[in-house]
Specification:
- One of its GO terms (molecular function) is L-rhamnose mutarotase activity.
- This is L-rhamnose mutarotase.
- Keywords: Isomerase.
- The protein has helices spanning 15-22, 27-35, 60-68, 71-80, and strands at residues 2-9, 39-45, 50-57.
- The protein is an alpha+beta fold and 106 residues long.
- It has a single domain, classed as Alpha-Beta Plaits.
- The protein has a three-stranded antiparallel sheet with strand order 1-3-2, with no helix packed on it.
- A hairpin with a 4-residue loop joins β2 and β3 (50-57).
- It is globular, with a radius of gyration of 14 Å.
- 11% of the residues are buried.
Amino acid sequence: MQRVCFLLKIRADRIEEYRARHAAVWPEMLRALSESGWHNYSLFLREDGLLVGYLETEDFEAARAAMEATEVNARWQAEMAGLFESLDGERPDEAMRPLTEVFHLD
């Protein structure tokens, strides 16, 4: 199982909206993530907007591609894009850059 961690930045003026949207993620989005191989997926949000994401998957690139192929992901990414800083024209899911794991304790 591959462990993936990434960082993104939520705009300071949109943090509460980001929290609210994730308190009510669409059921079809949750289903698509699960079916695409995203497991043990968590998002952590610091008060200044730093977002830390963590997930486990057999193959991150395959899981990412499977989500990209879904219609619900396109809708979700379009609705969420305005909440993030520094996307440089990318969708939020395209801007996820996995961090290099340097230590893990089983």
